[in-house]
Amino acid sequence: MSVSDCVFCKIASGQIPARLVFEDEEFVAFHDLKPQAPVHVLLIPKAHFSTLLEVQDAGLLGRALLAVSETARRLNVAEEGFRTVINCGDNGGQTVYHLHFHILGGRFLQWPPG
Ligand code: AMP
Ligand code: ZN
Fold it and tell me: Considering the domain boundaries, does residue 113 fall inside one?
């Protein structure tokens, strides 16, 4: 699949709509279409990386985690706790091949995942 067909690139560029909760020059966060918890938001870099394995830039990854923290605060789940997840590849359960951080909260989350 080419970058021009990537659904998250289209959200990042505003070509398809999403319910945004955070945006800066480098990242955008929006509500998941099929939420798995009362709060389920995805944070993505605007630049296209298919999976975590493609990213070589430690600074970008660090800033992404800071943006996750900021988004969790804005969503009011920072204090009670939340989970951030990166599914990587087929066995990791990745279905959209544009790097994204899930932010899940608003209920107690079981561990380990299935
Ligand atoms: P993953 O399985 O980790 O690749 O997660 C992909 C996530 O993207 C799933 O939770 C989907 O519900 C979500 N998703 C797919 N398309 C959209 C979309 N257009 N807007 C918001 N979330 C989406
Ligand atoms: Zn993309």
Answer: no
Residue 20 belongs to domain with CATH number: 3.30.428.10
Say whether pTM exceeds 0.90: yes
User: Is the previous residue joined to 45 through a cis bond, with omega within 30 degrees of 0?
Assistant: no
Name the residue with the closest Cα to ligand 1, atom 16.
33
For residue 97, the ligand 1 atom closest to its alpha carbon is 4
Domain assignment of residue 63, given as a range: 3-105
Structure confidence by residue, pLDDT tens digits, 24-40? 999 999 999 999 999 99
Around ion ligand 2, which residues have CB less than 5 A away? Answer: 6, 8-9, 48, 98
CA 55–ligand 2 middle distance (angstroms): 13
Residue 1 has pLDDT above 70, yes or no: no
CB 29 within 8 A of CB 41: yes
Measured at the CA of 73, the angle between CA 35 and CA 40, to 5 degrees, comes to 5
How many angstroms is it from 8 CA to the middle of ligand 2? 5
